[in-house]
Amino acid sequence: EGVRLWGGRFAGGPSEALARLSASVHFDWRLAPYDIAGSRAHARVLHKAGLLTADELTRMLEGLDRLEADVADGSFTGTVADEDVHTALERGLLERLGPELGGKLRAGRSRNDQIATLFRMYLRDHARIIGDLLADLTEALVAQAEAHADVAMPGRTHLQHAQPVLLAHHLLAHAHALGRDAERLRQWDERTAVSPYGSGALAGSSLGLDPQAVAADLGFERGSVANSIDGTASRDFVAEFAFVTAMIGIDLSRIAEEIIIWNTKEFSFVTLDDAYATGSSIMPQKKNPDIAELARGKSGRLIGNLTGLLATLKALPLAYNRDLQEDKEPVFDSCDTLEVLLPAFTGMIATLRVNRERMEELAPAGFSLATDIAEWLVRQGVPFRVAHEVAGECVKFCEPRGMELDELTDEQLAAISEHLRPEVREVLDVRGALASRNGRGGTAPERVAEQLAEVRADLATQ
Ligand code: ARG
User: Fold this and answer.
1) Do 377 and 167 form a contact (C-beta atoms < 8 A)?
2) Which positions fall inside the Argininosuccinate lyase C-terminal domain (predicted)?
3) Is the peptide bond before 233 cis (omega within 30 degrees of 0)?
4) One fold for both 112-361 and 365-461?
5) Using the 8-state DSSP alphabet, how is residue 51 labeled?
6) 124 touches 419 (CB < 8 A)
């Protein structure tokens, strides 16, 4: 038989149908350790305010310790008869301490300020877990970049050959995106380090409790909320967390899509390690990139969690409304999703085998050095507009003849434009093209080495 936190003014118990609709214990039970931590902090401020004697505080903390141990080993759990995690834990405390002492803890707090606080604590912990997993993935990308520091590949725009780049440059582009996601998590955490405990239902408490002491006790570096209505009603911290996790999903999906394409027969840029690929139940030859596909698929789910949550929040009047109970499952799912996806994804990246010959063979293909002809001409004093036309003429000449740009003879070059002296051939070479892009952020080997060092240094400070 569960306890209820609000029986007094009701003639009878809730209908079965209401109880089933209203229950959240099946998904908010994971907040139990945070609820108990909150209860400890709350007991201490009740004592400070003279509402618990020193002896009562000692017995209360001891009861909470026992409850915590029983929750941890599974001997105490919430049941459907308990409406939510707070109700279940109150029952647990009453069972352990009796109604006299057990019934004192609820003074001056509400499930509204409790849930707003616990939810922040939970998400802050998971922001750290996800941040660490992101760092592992970034590390795997950086290690691949280091191991293939000199490998050239076709850089693409519109998925068409554009200009040769270093594979390391390309991999580091993904590492930078993930680095910004990790930074978003850290900045979100800083914004979220404010405790709503002490806000009560919405208006604060009349019992002389000290919200700042609770905040410090629970590790909220920036103290307690300045406004109790905002503290209990705001969920932008949840929406922002859902956005950052959705963005991580999107960034993973962009890597994933490339892995899927690179792993095709036609590309043959990479081979997946057997431990990170799957087979087919009917086609014996198959080796599928399921991790990458699941990452691509789960990014949709992460976006759904964000949009569902935003729809729940839209137009909600202040302060707490029960709609807000719908805020937890989406982001719990986002945490679970990333925490199971990221380790597999990292393993896939770390064990990826690169087909360097294939990448380098295709690096200059598709006239990807045409820009180099144009830029060579610019260095000879030709206006870029003309240079662009001339380089285009070279492509137009070669394409129908099945020739590459570096196969143009001196005569053919001269026939296309008087500016095209034989020396232009010096830039029609992948190494030369890479080395020439030597401004900050460019694909020249020494620039990419600098970038690598920067990303490494950044990882080390996290
Ligand atoms: N379970 C609720 C939630 O997740 C917290 C309880 C507040 N309930 C209430 N009737 N005021 O938002």
Assistant:
1) no
2) 367-434
3) no
4) no
5) S
6) no
CATH number of 112-361: 1.20.200.10
What size, in residues, is the chain? 462
Within 10 angstroms of residue 44's Cβ, the number of other Cβ atoms is 19
Residues 436-452: what's their mean pLDDT? 96
CATH-assigned architecture of domain 365-461: Orthogonal Bundle (1.10)
- From the centroid of its chain, how far is CA 421? 52
What number is the ipTM of this complex?
0.95
Ligand 1: atom nearest CA of 24 is 1
pLDDT for the residue numbered 80: 80
CA dist 172 → 154, 299, 347, 433, 449 (Å):
15, 21, 17, 19, 10
Hey, where are the domains in the chain?
Answer: 16-107, 112-361, 365-461
Considering only the top CATH level, what class is 16-107? mainly alpha
- In 263-383, alpha helices (H): 290-313, 328-350, 356-362, 370-379
Are 94 and 101 in contact, with CB atoms under 8 Å apart?
A: no
Mutate-to-test residue for ligand 1 from 26, 28, 84, highest number of ligand atoms within 8 A of CB: 84
Instruction: Write the pLDDT tens digit of every residue in 92-103.
Output: 999 999 999 999
Phi, psi of 222 (to 5 degrees): -100, 20
Q: What is the helix (H) or strand (E) element at residue 41, kind and residue range?
A: helix 32-48
